[in-house]
Amino acid sequence: MSTYNVTEVLVGGAVLACAVAFGVYASQSTGLSQGGEGYQLEASFRSLEGVGVGTDVRLAGVKIGTVTGVTLNADTYRADTTFTIRDGILVPDDSAIVISSEGLLGGNFVEVMPGGSPFYFEPGDQVEDTQGAVSLISLLVKFVAGDGGE
């Protein structure tokens, strides 16, 4: 049997501590540590391109929640979406939910466009005012084909 050098034990402990710290940081930055905090809202979109479970829900550019479920409604052929909003964030009941893009090469996210109503969505409410994702490819095809509305 070989004896362990004190330096080897200390380096091993430091590597293990760094791995644990990285795991905690990764879970906090991805929102996994938030667990079930918050309340759920539902929305139905014509196109949910680029959005899936885990996608950010933002208000004024600030992450306020996460998409928690996406299913296809076989009757309406729309994407039914469930998302969680952090506790303490009140969303007016005349707000719109829009699929927005971070830019030409960026990903999509769900954006809450707040309304001016003094009343707020309750947990489990359905957001009626939605706007799906706009396909950049279809816009480019229309531009190249000359369908500019002239």
Q: What's the tally of helices?
A: 2
Q: What is the quaternary state of this protein? A: single chain
Helix content: 10-25%
Shape designation: extended
What order do the SSEs take from the amino end to the carboxyl end, as H and E? HEEEEEEEEH
Q: Detail the poorly predicted runs.
A: none
| Beta-strand content bin | 25-35%
Separation of the first and last Cα atoms: 85 Å
What features would you describe in this structure?
With 150 residues, the protein is α/β, with parallel strands linked by helices. The protein has two domains: 1-30; 37-142, no CATH class. It is 23% helix and 31% strand. The chain has helices spanning 6-29, 136-145; strands at 39-45, 56-59, 62-73, 78-85, 96-101, 108-113, 126-127, 130-131. The chain has an eight-stranded mixed sheet, with no helix packed on it. The chain starts with 5 loop residues before the first helix and ends in a 5-residue tail after the last helix. The model has no long low-confidence stretch (mean pLDDT 83). Residues 38-115 form the Mce/MlaD domain.
Brief synopsis:
Residues 38-115 form the Mce/MlaD domain. By secondary structure, the protein is an alpha/beta fold.
List the defining traits of the structure above.
2 domains, eight-stranded mixed β-sheet, 8 strands, Mce/MlaD, Putative phospholipid ABC transporter-binding protein MlaD, ABC_MlaD, MlaD_Phospholipid_Transporter
Topology:
Layout: H1 6-29, E1 39-45, E2 56-59, E3 62-73, E4 78-85, E5 96-101, E6 108-113, E7 126-127, E8 130-131, H2 136-145
Parallel strand pairs: 1-7, 2-6, 5-8
Antiparallel strand pairs: 1-4, 2-3, 3-4, 5-6
